[in-house]
Design goal:
The protein has 12 helices and 15 strands. With 348 residues, it is α/β, with parallel strands linked by helices. Strand 13 and strand 14 form a beta hairpin.
């Protein structure tokens, strides 16, 4: 299979995005009586970086934090996780927060963002030395959450993508759509196509591709519920993305259906003019849905970075994402060996 990397394989993976603290009040309000509330360090791009570091790949993380003792503690925590924090910059503002009721999904109404005025949200073009940030980097990853924060962040995304492209760095994007963030007068479709022009690998789902890139899906496709139809739509959407964005070489789509008690999860990867689909995973019980998609993204990067075969890449990424559903927190704790064992168990 083709290798997406354009530089030496031993280059670092740089994940770019906002670090967030997640606060998890329980639905019954007992946290008020107990004076306790669970919290996790996360953010989509950091979750991916955490997974990659756990799996033994050289990964750096770029974000902006305020220069204070809390940031210093968090940076030390990230270092212990195996993440290179040398490209974390400091800026005016605070650390962003979000609140999510325990057990809920980030698309749930219980999600509350509190990240206005954060150091990352205040980032401006013309300030960061991207040549220095991107030194010895062979893979750059970001998500659609970044340009959703504000026009200035979207402008910085374009600035760093231009710098990465000039260096021949492989670029990936996660088309994660957060409707509560796109509040600065621009819709995703006004911003994301220009940024995706720089990307070699696009990950998301068929609905995100429609919302963010204008790749229309078949009307009322959700009424069928048939896997074969979803796979056909994934193929059509993937081909449309590659036709519209010539630099793109691979497209991955996730399908998670949890409207019923029995949750179903499977994914696809389109590369080298062929669609690969994963095995199907099912469960009736989930501990934490946050970070599952980030773990899938990390699994894709892990596979491509190690030049694995396409079918191996999609199976590993899918199992990694599925296993994250049973782990509290934003990031996975599953090792490569545990993920490979999950694949074996599912294929039996």
């Amino acid at each position: 299979m083709s290798d997406l990397l354009k530089q030496e394989k031993n280059g670092s993976i740089l994940s770019f995005g906002e670090l967030l603290i997640r606060l998890c009040p329980d639905a019954d309000g007992d946290w008020l009586n107990n004076n306790k509330i669970p919290f996790y360090i996360g953010g989509a791009e950091l979750n991916a970086a955490n997974a990659l570091a756990l799996w033994g790949l050289p990964v750096k993380y770029f974000t902006l934090l305020p220069d204070n003792s809390l940031s210093a503690q968090i940076i030390e925590y990230l270092k212990k996780m195996g993440i290179d924090t040398s490209q974390i910059h400091y800026g005016d503002g605070r650390i962003g927060l979000y609140y999510l009721t325990t057990g809920q999904d980030v698309k749930h109404n219980g999600l509350i963002y509190d990240r206005a005025g954060s150091a990352f949200a205040n980032i401006k073009t013309g300030v960061i030395d991207w040549d220095k940030v991107l030194q010895n980097v062979s893979w750059f990853h970001f998500s659609a959450i970044c340009p959703a924060i504000g026009q200035n962040v979207a402008d910085v995304c374009k600035e760093v993508l231009e710098a990465a492209e000039k260096k021949g760095i492989t670029i990936s994007v996660d088309l994660n759509y957060r409707s509560k963030l796109w509040q600065y007068g621009k819709s995703p479709i006004e911003i994301m196509p220009e940024l995706v022009n720089y990307c070699d690998l696009v990950m998301g789902n068929i609905w995100a591709a429609e919302t963010m890139l204008g790749i229309e899906i078949t009307p009322d496709i959700h009424k069928s519920g048939q896997k074969t139809i979803y796979l056909e739509e994934s193929l059509r959407t993937s081909e449309s993305i590659l036709n519209r964005f010539p630099k793109c070489k691979a497209v991955a789509n996730t399908f998670r259906f949890d409207a019923t008690k029995d949750i179903k999860y499977y994914t696809t990867l389109y590369v080298n003019n062929q669609l690969y689909n994963s095995g199907e995973y099912q469960t009736e019980q989930v501990i934490d849905k946050v970070g599952s998609g980030d773990c899938f993204m990390a699994g894709l990067i892990y596979g491509f970075y190690n030049t694995h075969a396409a079918d191996e890449i999609i199976e590993f990424a899918t199992a990694a994402a599925f296993e994250k559903l049973f782990i509290n927190g934003d990031a996975t704790t599953c090792t490569v060996a545990e993920i490979k064992n999950a694949i074996k168990l599912n294929l039996k």
